Amino acid sequence: MAVVSSLLVKAMLGLSLSVMMLLPWFSLAIDIHYVREMAAQNNVSCILVFGDSSVDPGNNNVLPTTMKSNFPPYGKDFFNGLPTGRFSNGRLASDFIAEAVGYRNIVPAFLDPKLKLEDLPHGVSFASAATGYDDFTANISNVLPVSRQIEYFEHYKIHMRKLMGEERAEFVIRNALYIISMGTNDFLQNYYLDSTRPKQFTVQQYQNFLLSRMTRDIQVIHRLGGRRIVVVGVPPLGCMPLVKTLYSQANCVASLNRVSFSFNAKLLHQLNTLKTNLHLKTAFVDAYGSILRAVIHPAKYGFEEGRKGCCGTGAVEYGDSCRGMETCKDSSKYVFWDAVHPSEKMYKIIADAALDSVTKELTA
């Protein structure tokens, strides 16, 4: 673990102190009553979510794609132990955020055929596992690009106007928290596996391209009424069990972690620019720091295993290759659920970090 710590320090070199300050060493103790008070005082109306598998509660279930998780052992620790399409053993960070601000204890999938009209005011997720800021990333797996997710958001607005009238619907839209969480697949399933983008961009150029796509998406969401934007940074790609297996390394792959860290630094800078130019309320969620700290010092967060996932061998299985596999006895002891995705407990830690960022922004 000392080797990983050394690599982390090296990854930080050359980055601004303001970014490094996003990396506290201990988990946050979130006061739920305070969060709900701040949400009420600032008229936070609901949670609307865009992104990939980190926030997809099951939209991919109805898509013609292999990127699904609506089968056991996924959902092992969800309510009633049922798989929902969430790529985890239980709830996602977006679910915990919704519960904390005083709404329902999950954020449902917009494409869920069981979703009722009266559920819409409480918030929904338009996210699609395996997507990214780059539309080409979504095309690889035949999932929803962000442009399509935003189209569904426009459908959501139409339903809301019919349900509660234009004035009230616009109030809900303007006061919602918009969570955007993606980027992992742009690098791991696109840039580092497909030959198309590397022929067009260096890694640094591709990072800038992704940021230009994120900027476009936020501008469209702003035009449609969004004023409070929460962006989740890319996790430490090199610490994913699958990546370590592919690179034949026991410790985190430093080169990929540097890509994650530098991209997040650029993302934060761009988000601050958009905040000023569009007069937005913005919050950045440091998923990189939260996961990396848990991987390096699992015991500090109540974990016992930060190197592999709970599903199967924990080294390669995710999605369909995790289907029907045996799992660890206690997933709450694992940072990762499968070889790619965090466990429910890790998502709760990320949610707490998000809530801390959001409440600071709302009270600024």
From TrEMBL:
Pfam family, one: Lipase_GDSL
Lineage: Eukaryota, Viridiplantae, Streptophyta, Embryophyta, Tracheophyta
Top-rank taxon: Eukaryota
Record family assignment: Belongs to the 'GDSL' lipolytic enzyme family.
GO MF, one annotated term: hydrolase activity, acting on ester bonds
InterPro entries tied to this protein: GDSL, GDSL_lipolytic_enzyme, SGNH_hydro_sf, SGNH_plant_lipase-like
UniProt-recorded name of the protein: GDSL esterase/lipase
